[in-house]
Amino acid sequence: xxxxxxxxxxxxxxxxxxxxxxxxxxxxxxxxxxxxxxxxxxxxxxxxxxxxxxxxxxxxxxxxxxxxxxxxxxxxxxxxxxxxxxxxxxxxxxxxxxxxxxxxxxxxxxxxxxxxxxxxxxxxxxxxxxxxxxxxxxxxxxxxxxxxxxxxxxxxxxxxxxxxxxxxxxxxxxxxxxxxxxxxxxxxxxxxxxxxxxxxxxxxxxxxxxxxxxxxxxxxxxxxxxxxxxxxxxxxxxxxxxxxxx
Length: 246
Hints:
- By secondary structure, this protein is α/β, with parallel strands linked by helices.
- The chain is built from seven helices and twelve strands.
- The strands form two sheets. A seven-stranded mixed sheet has the order 1-2-3-4-5-6-7, with no helix packed on it. It has a five-stranded mixed sheet with strand order 8-9-10-11-12, covered by helices on one side.
- Helix 4 (109-118) packs antiparallel against helix 5 (123-131).
């Protein structure tokens, strides 16, 4: 890498794994490279809330990855505007999402645009991104092992529904193991249950998440600071109590 994670404004989580907390909504964007600090392909987890943010993330990722390298794969954790509207900035990347999210993003792009505007994105920026919104090319039903080369494999797991109808998590083996949770887990505020949430299924989704990551993993929320398994379990129990499910 030409620059360190910290120099680029990112948080290093493990060798070849980092994330950036985006402004305004504190949404997490993750980056996973081939094993170690260089080599192989590169996976971005979510893409920001506008094309401008997407282009900024692309430029930062290229600085981190070094000359001649770029983001080759994208995993969308769920279809909310602050996680998907920057995708078109990554031309040529292979995009992954949970089964059904492709149809939703094609059918409901106006709803995604309007949700962005309601949350403060300028209408012109939201409309521009929605017009070129990229639906996933590859759909994950259960689990999908993605080989990034140089000994690095990551696991994409469809553990939802929960926060949305299409929740995908990204498990990066290593020491420590890192789990990108999307908005199934939030640290900077109370987990948000919008109109597309499935409250009765959310605790079970977190049970599946914990089974994948185990007790010693780093859990990276969709919003907020990195947490541990005990935090995820406590949030799972709070959601079960909130929505009166077991």
